[in-house]
Amino acid sequence: MNIVFYILLAFTPLINLAIMKEVVNLVVDIIQNKGSISKGILLLIFQTLISIITWSAESVHKLIEIKMKQKIDFSLQKIIIQKANSLPLVFFDDHESYNTVERASAAGERATSILTAILEIFKNLITLTGYLVMLYSLHWILPVSIILLIFIPLWVNIRIGKQKYNQAYEQTPTQRRISYLYNLLIGKHAAKELRLSKHDNYLSSLWEKYKWTNNTEQFNLEKKAVKSNLWVFSVKDISNLIFISSILYISSKGRLTMGDYFIFSQGITFSLSMIGEVAQGISSIFEGAIYINDYYDFINQEEEKLDANLKNPLIFKKEIKVEKLSFQYPHSNRKTLDNISFEIKCGEKIAIVGKNGAGKSTLINCIIGLYKTTEGKIFYDGVHINQINPLNLRKKISAIFQDFVRYQLSIRKNICISDIANIDNDEKISRVVKETDINSLIEKLIHGYETELGTAFSGGQELSGGQWQKIGLTRALFKESEIIILDEPTAALDPIAESDILSKFIKSTKDKTSIFITHRLGICKEVDRIIVLDNGRLIEQGNHNELMALKGEYASMFKSQSDWYQ
Fold first, then answer.
1. Radius of gyration over alpha carbons of the chain, in Å?
2. Alpha carbon 429 to chain centroid distance?
3. Does 410 score more than 70 pLDDT?
4. Which of 245, 320, 428, 530 has a Cα at 20 to 30 A from 155?
């Protein structure tokens, strides 16, 4: 359908030019009392109809193009979203990965411009062919000379396009930093500290520095482009002058009518303009193709292996066994985890403790399969984790992390997003919210479960840090799982409140295997076993009494925190 409009729009300039030739000749005849005014009016009416048809076609074509662009943008963004969610978690631990995603997103926008450029070239070539055929009837050297002139703007545009791509590629990290600082300065996240410490001027100066560094580089490249294009336009205009002068000379010999002079001179001017547009279109395709390579660089990233053909479902009835586990992040020269071995019996309550940076969260990410181990093995009931269908494994695990997502959605959606199939199961929701003591807050809200959380959108209700963490705990409980992992999600609560909440959590999950990651040890008295990490190594394990008797790292940490629980 869109092709039809491009063909129609390609022929209308040629038709208009032919009509104008007749109008000009008729005007000359009328001045000399040889022409018919009625014929002139008919020609003008016909020209007006062509103009209306052209405008209508352009309007419909524009709507079709907008719809096409929306569909392509949607499809490409959906592919990028799906790809991002299929990549291993470790991909996002490398800063260069964010540059890759940024470039892929920018490249996706170029796909529409490539398709548009192809269609525009198709249209312009039809129109240009009509002009060149017309000029050929006067002399063959005119169309040949005009065709040869395409190589000048084509070479310049391709060269500038490549330079702009290289600049955009190199500026990606700086551009991400500019966006980060800008959002920091205008958003809520840093608003309190900015007002209290008044370091907004410092951050603003950093933003200005990076912003103007990029702007200056872009401006300098634009200056080069202007200089190059000035040369291109000069060649085009001088060529136009020479060609039209030759037509003027031929006209002076009486070989052309006024109408002939008009259409040939206009044909030359329009042809040279079309040559520039075709060259621009070809260079746009070339430039877009370079950007599209960035899109495919991202799309071709190795995905997380979710082999649906694995025949081993997770039947967790005995234990999780970790044997000589080590893990090292990409581009790191040291092991985050080093030679760790332990077992977790089915139904056990385990606390993994240690100082910040000890490797607690990394260990959990390995156990649940989000990170692939560098060395060592993990078994579920004797089956290697690599032989278990990952999708099946994750269905059996519920986790709430320290940096859990605070969805700017309703309370219902915040809780039920872990098991979206039960979003309308009010009985289940009611039972779970009581177990985390968040029911008292929900009952006070006018819209109850439908209350929007956060201040990102109109009517949102902001919660305290502790209330948000209770929402997170409720989300973890709502999912029907056999293994529950809590990675310091209650850090915003005071130690006594945290200990109370976790005690209730242990009781409500008595039939499940629970793993608590914490550096606050109040809950450790109630768990079956404690694993102590230090600098990525397992240095102690046992229950509370055993580790206190050992008088090692755990005992030292617990004594330093004992005043919190008095």
1. 35
2. 33
3. yes
4. 245
